[in-house]
Structure formats: C-alpha cells, structure tokens
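Hi support team,

I've been running sequence recovery on a batch of backbones for a student project. Most finish fine, but this one hangs at about 90% for roughly twenty minutes before it completes. I'm not sure whether the input is malformed or the queue is just slow. I've pasted the structure tokens below so you can try to reproduce it. Let me know if you need the job ID as well.

Thanks,
M.K.
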C-alpha cells in the first residue's frame, strides 16, 4: 500500500488535483477489473487532461472579453430570419477557423449578429482556441494607442497569433481616414493567416461611407470576403419580440447585396 501523504504531495507538485480526486475510485476499479498498469495510467491522466481542457475553455472565454455571454443553445432560430440553423451549427464546428476563413454577419440592429458572433466564438474557446473580442471602435482605439507608442507592427503581429478575432459593430460610427487605415492594416495582416468574425448593421454598399473612402472600403471588403461565410440576418429586432405589434416601428430597411 503506498503512502497517501506522499501521493497527495506528488499530485500537488504536479498540479494535478483532478487526478488526485479520481485516484481512490479509479484504483479500486482497476484492482477489481484487473487493469494493466498502462490502462490505469491512461485513465488517471485522461481525467486530469479533461478537467484542464474544460477549465482552459473558461479561462479563454474570460480572456476573450466578450460583451456578453451568449450561446447557440439560447439562440431562437425560429425567430431569426436569413440564417439557417444547420448553417450556423456547421460554422460552430470551426472548420472556418482551421481554414483561416472569416465570418461576416450583416443585418439591422437587434437581429442577433453579436449573439451569434459570441456563441460561435465561445465554441472556439471551448475547443482550445484563443479569441479576442472588441467593437470596431475599440480595436481602432487599441491600434491607435499602439501606433502612437511606435508598437503598431508588434501589436498586429501579436494579434496575429490569436486565431480568432471578433470585430463587432462595424458601421455604428463612421471612421476618419486614420482609423480606417488601422482597420485595413489589421484585416490585411490577418488575410489567409487567421480568422475574423465581423458584424455590421450596414450592407457592404454602405461601407464606403463608414470608411470615408470607397477604394479603401472595397479593398477591405475584398480581403475580408475572399475566404468568408457571409450571413445576412433580416427582419425585426429580437428586442421587440414580445412588444405589442401596434407599437412596433416599421422594420429597418436593409438590403444586403
Ligand atoms: P445585433 O448585434 O444584431 O444588434 P444582438 O445579438 O445584440 O443583436 O441581439 C440583441 C438581443 O437580442 C441580445 O440580447 C440577443 O441575445 C437577443 N437575440 C437576438 N436574436 C435572438 C434570437 N434569434 N434568439 C435569442 N435571442 C436573440
Ligand atoms: Mg451587435
């Protein structure tokens, strides 16, 4: 019989609390079922690995700094217009991430763009990928700050090591040329290297106005959509779902091309 105090010490040194907790039951089962040493070792290590993978997911979700916590399970596909459940569930299997492709979510306010962007990203966190979330305005602020302190290249490189970057709310505020240029640099640097999920309440035809320059906007859209899945949400804001029909404003006019 081994010394339990010594075992407890070794588990602490190895930082393997899940394995420590599962040891008594696993050992008992291994004895009863006459497992090989290899099978027992594998079962013990697998317990620790599974526990680390799930807490790692939680750490990555917190590190991503999502605006809210939203899941695909909470998303009502019967209310949403313009997206198919199967299509979204397929995206959540993360092939796009492995292929370094993008997702662009377009549609009027309240139709679930941010919700879906976060829900797919959470799947990525749980599957072991790092994610960084911010609004377009926040990305501009962050990159602008890096630029002012002469670290723009370094910052873009650092962000390039994060496999999924979410840029929420492109179009809520128009950009000045300097801001537009920063976003263009970020999008270009990630092109075919790392994925982005971008949301916008403006169809691509309105992006020239957002970025103050049709040529910059066209070049950006070109890079963004060359390898991308584009989802165009339509219809009413989910926020008005239970409101009296009579008091509803007319649906926002939105014509994605
Ligand atoms: P958008 O980013 O398109 O403006 P959001 O994703 O922020 O819209 O959605 C607004 C609110 O409505 C959020 O709280 C979101 O969770 C909820 N919501 C939107 N669409 C759905 C849906 N189809 N099912 C469940 N909740 C939804
Ligand atoms: Mg949003």
């Amino acid at each position: 019989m081994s010394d339990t105090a010594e075992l407890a010490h070794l588990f602490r040194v190895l930082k393997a609390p899940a394995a420590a907790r599962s040891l008594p039951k696993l050992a008992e089962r291994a004895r009863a079922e006459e497992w090989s040493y290899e099978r027992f070792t594998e079962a013990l290590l697998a317990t620790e690995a599974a526990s680390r993978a799930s807490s790692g997911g939680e750490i990555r979700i917190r590190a991503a700094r999502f605006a809210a916590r939203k899941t695909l399970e909470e998303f009502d596909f019967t209310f949403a217009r313009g997206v198919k459940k199967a299509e979204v569930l397929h995206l959540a299997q993360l092939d796009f991430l492995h292929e370094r492709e993008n997702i662009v979510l377009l549609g009027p306010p309240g139709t679930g763009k941010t919700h879906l962007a976060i829900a797919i990203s959470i799947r990525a966190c749980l599957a072991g990928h790092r994610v960084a979330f911010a609004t377009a305005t926040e990305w501009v602020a962050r990159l602008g700050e890096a630029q002012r302190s002469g670290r723009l290249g370094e910052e873009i490189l650092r962000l390039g090591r994060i496999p999924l970057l979410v840029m929420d709310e492109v179009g809520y505020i128009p950009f000045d040329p300097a801001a537009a240029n920063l976003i263009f640099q970020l999008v270009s640097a990630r092109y075919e290297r790392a994925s982005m999920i971008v949301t916008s309440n403006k169809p691509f035809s309105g992006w020239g106005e957002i970025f103050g320059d049709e040529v910059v906007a066209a070049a950006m859209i070109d890079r963004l959509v060359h390898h991308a899945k584009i989802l165009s949400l339509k219809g009413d804001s989910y926020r008005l779902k239970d409101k009296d029909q009579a008091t509803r404003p007319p649906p926002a006019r939105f014509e994605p091309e």
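--
Follow-up from support: It reproduced on our side and the slowdown came from queue contention, not your input. The mean pLDDT is 92. No action needed from you.
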